[in-house]
Amino acid sequence: MASKTTGKLNLWLTKMTDKISDTISTYLYENFTKIDTEFSAHLAETTTKFNVIEDEIDDLTSGKADKVEVRMKDVKLELEDMSPTTLAAIEGGEETSFDLLSIPQDMSVNRNKLDLELGKSLISSLNNEVPDAELEGDSWYTTAGSSVDFSQGVLVATGNGTRPSFGTSKPISDGQFDNPIRKNDKIYYGSTASIDSDLASNFILSFQNINGTVSLQATTLTSPLPNTYYKLSNIVEVTEDMAGCNLLLTVGFASSGDALDKVMKMHSPILINLTKVFGAGNEPSKEEMDEFMESIGWYPKTAPIDTITLTALKGITKLRQKQVENSSRIDDLAQIVSEKSGLKRYVLKNNPLPELMDVSDLGWTIDGSQVIEPYWVENHNDSVRIIGYWNSQLFQSLDNGATWTRIMAGGLLNGRPAYVFCTPHPDFNKSVFVVTRNTYEIYQSSDLENDGWGSWIK
Questions:
Q1: Closest to 191 (Cα-Cα) out of 174, 210, 214, 168
Q2: pLDDT tens column, 415-456
Q3: d(CA 263, CA 286)
């Protein structure tokens, strides 16, 4: 009996063991499948995160990770402090109407980018003042002893044998200038010329009064080789206000017979009022202008800034140094501004300071004296100073401890170009830095909002 009972028990235990085993196997299979699915999902998510991190590392090593893009519409809302992160890299994004300069997080300014932007800003104002500089023939005159024709941007003058010299002239009236010529202005002028004969003795390029009766300066090149283009240029300082000027280019021979049927070709006339661009006393030399023209190439009106490269701006380096005396001051100023407290916003625009500008038509006053001449600004040691001219006299220099000075526009600013720099006001415990550009707003210390500035702040 006991043996029979034991056998049934063993059979039951065997069945239960098999059932338990099947149950455990099913449970483990289902759960391991779930675990495997979850693990795969986590693995995929982790892989994605690592890919993102890897991309960020690539961006970091390529210098892209330290940039924060701020759209034009966001500037007023987002630049509420002066932290390096906020100022890291203010870039004009897509669909914005202006370009800003990148400022790395360590507050050092990219020198190459500043060089390029400053170069573009400078050459954009170096207008060629010669009307019809592309030589289409409607306003160029022949001199006695020749006839003139035009072919694909080249003026062709042919001697008729009645005089030993011949050429062409270009009168430019006062109203045709973007920058009319006034007393003490320095003018860079030039052209390129060739002659087809080895009998020619010289080229003479003259800067004259508009009637052509008085030559203020004549530039002579002797013994030109035949069929060789020569670049003639010079700088003249005018001695009185002028109603215009006349550019005269002639080629000379020993006799009228030698000049018969000889062909002079001329192209690329140029005339730039250096004083109006750089300011009195800051004009570049003839050699510096020649170097600049060589690097950028001739242009009929406005310099081709859209296609200019940093390499092509090699000739602009000395010109920019003439304009601002020391290009590193822009770097210094960016650092100084970043360290000031209480400033709400700071943006380096595509025409960064310092910059020469003409404010003669805005009715500005400085300490009660009307500003009628250009002014510019620069930083000086640990402060900033305003430098400019009032009636051609230096009107202000602000160093540490200087009294309060500000430039007011009498409500006429309306987005016109302006830069304003001040040392601390005795009534305020915060330093003051105010700047505006021609298409945007003024950035200022909040303490100034109740001091009468609101009438001309956009």
A1: 168
A2: 333 333 333 334 333 333 333 332 223 333 333 333 333 222
A3: 29
Integer Cα distance of 191 and 382 in angstroms? 46
Residues 6+ apart with CB under 8 A from 130: 170, 172, 247, 269, 270, 271
CA separation for the pair 439, 416 (Å, rounded): 7
Q: Are strands 186-195 and 263-273 parallel, antiparallel or unpaired?
A: antiparallel
Span 9-18, mean pLDDT?
62
Largest CA distance in the chain: 156
Give the Cα separation of 77 and 201 in Å (integer): 70
What are the structure tokens assigned to 16, written together? Answer: 């239960």
Q: What does the alpha-carbon distance between residue 217 and residue 235 come to, in Å, rounded to a whole number? A: 9
Residue 113: the pLDDT is: 55
Q: Which residues contact 377 (CB under 8 A, 6 or more apart)?
A: 353, 354, 384, 385, 386, 387, 419, 421
Reduced to 3 states (helix: H, G, I; strand: E, B; else coil), residue 150 is strand
Q: Which of 136, 153, 162, 168 is nearest to 261 (CA)?
A: 162
pLDDT tens digits, one per residue of 121-156? 667 778 899 988 888 766 788 888 999 998 888 999
Residue 53 DSSP SS3: helix
Q: For residues 117 and 351, give the distance between their C-alpha atoms in angstroms, rounded to a whole number.
A: 7
> What tokens appear for 46 in the block?
């982790």
Round the average pLDDT of the chain to a whole number and report it. 61
CA dist 358 → 220, 247, 369, 371, 456 (Å): 35, 27, 16, 9, 19
* pLDDT tens readout for residues 22-67: 565 565 556 556 656 666 676 667 667 656 665 655 555 454 434 3
Whether 123 contacts 305, CB under 8 Å: yes
Can you give the pTM of this predicted structure?
0.49
> CA-to-CA distance for 34 and 28, rounded, in angstroms?
10
Fold held by 141-302: Jelly Rolls (2.60.120)
Q: Which two tokens stand for residue 388?
A: 């400019």
- Strand, coil or helix: 336: helix
- Decide: helix, strand or coil at residue 308: coil
With residues binned 3-state (H G I as helix, E B as strand, rest as coil), the percentages for the chain, rounded to 5, are 30, 25, 45
